[in-house]
Design goal:
Layout (H helix, E strand, L loop, with lengths): L1 E5 L10 E6 L6 E2 L4 E6 L4 E5 L4 E6 L6 E2 L4 E6 L12 H14 L5 H9 L18 H11 L3 H5 L42 H16 L2 E9 L1 H18 L6 H14 L5 E4 L2 E4 L5 E3 L1 E3 L2 E3 L2 E2 L7 H16 L5 H4 L4 E5 L18 E5 L3 E7 L2 E15 L5 H16 L2 H4 L3
Parallel strand pairs: 12-16, 16-17
Antiparallel strand pairs: 1-8, 2-4, 2-7, 3-6, 4-5, 6-8, 9-19, 10-11, 12-15, 13-14, 17-19, 18-19
Length: 419
């Protein structure tokens, strides 16, 4: 019995996706529910599991192809529990086995075909794909580098060519350089890669925010000594009791949620000619991953304790870095917090996350001399930046909102005791 592998149903806001990687190749044995193929949308990477125990019979959509919801992208054949994979035919099967063994990563059909046609050893080519995986572009780039040194391509290889050699695959036509880009030469190498769906979506949203809002940023500074002392005094006990580390972000989420309740004009969005004031605090926390920035949302953050916030952020970070965030994890949100301080940023102007009307930027904590009650003392200071949409939020409201956050951070007992 042959079963179709289909693209999962995509959310309304997502029109299509791109096949990122097939974890199995035609002829490979698969087990029910193991990861079969990853599909990248402009928001998340969807992991499509194997529908049953059997053998991947055919791949209908290769890596890099655009696919739509419910599209058939592969065929799986139930093999009744036999341990032997289906053979794709003598020479082709030999190429598959040897290339996987030599390179240490599964190779796509297109890559195996190119390697066989040019009698190349995959171990000689550096892979730039996920986990060092060899891509078609890597092989084409290697062939282009050989160029005039055609003899190098003709050297004997451990990979045998298929019996019937297919026509030579031509390299893609050269892309016309964008005016202003440096010239490409042998002594000045450059690499051109396609923009990922997530990166393209980030670029689109950032441009949308720049062109479609009236962004303005106000700055202030917070003395982090009270929170630092709390973490030093109770951090170990907190981790022992809740199995999660007590970080700074949970205090900021609590402070922002409390400030949003006191200043509802910040917790608003523009919808056409209307302003929507949200009676709940869904706070997004920006997380950096290898694929780009994602912003999972803490729902009803005003009702969460520090341990719940820290646990949720830890879980989101793990899912984000393994590409397992669900669409529901990153949609919605009424306010966003981003922390450039973890990378050493001292001061920056965060960009709005539309349709939200404000975003808070945290920065590196630095010990500085400050005046406290007429005396110069050394305190751990953090600069804070609040970017807001001036179409919705007036400057006075933005400044008082940021001041409220600072007051809560510098005297955290009030917000922790719900005073």
């Amino acid at each position: 019995m042959t079963i179709e592998v289909k693209v999962p149903e995509l959310p309304e806001s997502v029109s299509d996706g791109v096949v990122v990687v097939w974890h199995k190749q035609p002829g490979d044995i698969i087990e029910r529910d193991e990861a079969l193929v990853d599909i990248e949308t402009d928001k998340v990477v969807l992991e499509v599991p194997a529908p049953l125990d059997g053998v991947l019979e055919k791949v209908l959509s290769a890596e890099g192809e655009t696919v739509k919801s419910d599209q058939v992208i592969g065929l799986v054949k139930e093999n009744g529990g036999h341990a032997q994979p289906l053979s794709a035919g003598g020479a082709a099967a030999e190429v598959k086995t040897e290339t996987v063994a030599d390179h240490g990563q599964p190779l796509s059909p297109a890559v195996r075909k190119l390697l066989a046609e040019h009698r190349l050893d995959p171990g000689q080519i550096s892979g730039t794909g996920k986990g060092g995986r060899l891509t078609k572009g890597d092989v084409i780039g290697f062939l282009e580098q050989q160029g005039a040194a055609g003899a190098a391509i003709q050297e004997p290889s451990r990979v045998e060519a298929p019996a019937a050699k297919a026509p030579l695959t031509k390299a893609p036509p050269p892309v016309a350089p964008t005016p202003g880009l440096p010239e490409i030469g042998e002594e000045r190498p450059q690499k051109r890669v396609s923009m990922s769906r997530l990166r393209a979506r980030i670029a689109e949203r950032m441009l949308q925010a720049s062109l479609g809002t009236a962004m303005l940023t106000t700055f202030n500074e917070a003395d982090m000594l009270p929170i630092k002392q709390l973490r030093e005094k109770y951090g170990a006990a907190f981790q022992e009791n809740h199995s999660v580390r007590l970080g700074y972000m949970s205090f900021f989420v609590r402070a922002v949620a409390e400030a949003l309740k006191r200043h509802p004009e910040i917790n608003a969005s523009i919808d056409g000619e209307d302003i929507v004031y949200h009676g709940f605090c869904d706070i997004g926390v920006a997380i950096s991953t290898d694929r780009g920035l994602v912003v999972p949302v803490l729902r009803d953050a005003e009702h969460l304790g520090l341990a719940e916030i820290e646990t949720a952020i830890r879980d989101f970070a793990e899912k984000a870095r393994s590409g397992k965030l669900a669409m529901g994890d990153i949609t919605g949100g009424t306010f966003t917090i981003t922390n450039g301080g973890v990378f050493g940023s001292m001061l920056s102007t965060p960009i709005l996350n539309p349709p939200q009307s404000a975003i808070l930027g945290m920065h590196k904590i630095q010990e500085r001399p400050v005046v406290v009650e007429g005396e110069i003392v050394i305190r751990p200071i953090m600069y804070l930046a609040l970017t807001y949409d001036h179409r919705v939020v007036d400057g006075r409201d933005a400044v008082t909102f940021l001041t409220t956050i600072i007051e809560l951070l510098q005297d955290p007992a009030g917000m922790l005791l719900d005073l």
